[in-house]
């Protein structure tokens, strides 16, 4: 990553400090002030206030009460300007800070070590993405401005009837009438798009169903598992294998829907914030796939980050190549597979300059067709944790962040990417073999927004 890019992200980070300000005045005890006096002064300097008690003799700090009916703001301002007073403030209420760890009631959540590793089944406690800690802030679904967050999952298909999946629908389209009702260039794309057949009839697929559950299985609904997001919507796009032209068409659909959203101020299209790509070409050289790689810059310009799985092969992508994870776009996040012991799976690729971070991808419990649930392993299972994380961060209750994202979608997408990178847990198993040297941590990334 270039020094110029780092400086750009640093400037964005400083600007973001003003995006989520704390409340201008925290709750406080009515009529009470805490006052620090200069040496040689004390409560007698303020005869209109009643001293309650001395809090520190050495520092000359007193708790004092205003007369009944006094205007608090005016009184505080006058006392701060009083000669002999160093500092004055309200007597604020203080609460203990506890890691509440918001936990859903889904019956199989206890087996989702990727979200919350308690050491179950031989795992290393806390070798996880700290999902419950992040869910204390938000469980996803909507931005602070009320936009419905959408993640486009490009895969082999999906079980459209799975009861535990949050699925996007194009309500501007009438399903099955053979018309392009919303004039977006796609006929009958009510459920999404099938780039294999260039129509809206999505095939069923176990791989795509599993990946989608990790992104956004319904949380706290008393059924099965939960996704990184409890409420964000998955836009299914079939087009993860076969010919490269299919892949390009699949990405183009996600881009078209986000561009329509941007250009109509949300009246059309969909607020696609991330794509998930758990597929690729082993040992592919990006120079031979210029249009595919260029799609990530086009998506990024619209505000879309793309999470991509590296190959399931114990290879150094820096040396061997891989598509798409060796594509150079800053808007593409390349992901490898970590285990419940916080090790890189020995069947997953790596690369100090090409593979950005790790995420849990070994024995991951998620949704399967026909209302089922089961475990799968691979970089394919790691990547949707990252795609889902993009949507979860953008659901953080910060109006300023979303305002900036809409006015500068490309720049703010890079800021979100940097939050993900800077929030990783550093792991010996990934140090020297990935860009960040770490594994995804939702909670730590969330804290960076504050």
Note down, in words, how this protein is organized:
- The protein is α/β, with parallel strands linked by helices.
- It has helices at residues 3-16, 72-80, 131-135, 206-216, 244-263, 290-301, 317-320, 379-394, 399-407, 409-422, 442-449; strands spanning 28-37, 50-56, 61-65, 85-92, 149-155, 193-194, 233-238, 271-277, 281-282, 305-309, 322-323, 332-338, 357-360, 364-368, 372-376, 425-426, 438-439.
- It has two domains: 28-92, Alpha-Beta Plaits; 109-449, Rossmann fold (3-Layer(aba) Sandwich).
- The strands form five sheets. Strands 6-7-5-8-10-12-13 form a seven-stranded parallel sheet, sandwiched between helices. Strands 2-3-1-4 form a four-stranded antiparallel sheet, covered by helices on one side. It has a two-stranded antiparallel ribbon with strand order 9-11.
- CATH classification, class level of the largest domain: Alpha Beta
CATH superfamily of the largest domain: Peptidase S8/S53 domain
Beta percentage is: 15-25%
Mean pLDDT: 93
- Count all strands and give the number: 17
User: How does the major sheet shape up?
Assistant: 7 strands, parallel
N-to-C span? 25 Å
Count up the domains: 2
Topology readout:
Layout: H1 3-16, E1 28-37, E2 50-56, E3 61-65, H2 72-80, E4 85-92, H3 131-135, E5 149-155, E6 193-194, H4 206-216, E7 233-238, H5 244-263, E8 271-277, E9 281-282, H6 290-301, E10 305-309, H7 317-320, E11 322-323, E12 332-338, E13 357-360, E14 364-368, E15 372-376, H8 379-394, H9 399-407, H10 409-422, E16 425-426, E17 438-439, H11 442-449
Parallel strand pairs: 5-7, 5-8, 6-7, 8-10, 10-12, 12-13
Antiparallel strand pairs: 1-3, 1-4, 2-3, 9-11, 14-15, 16-17
Helix pairs in contact: 4-8, 5-6, 9-10, 10-11
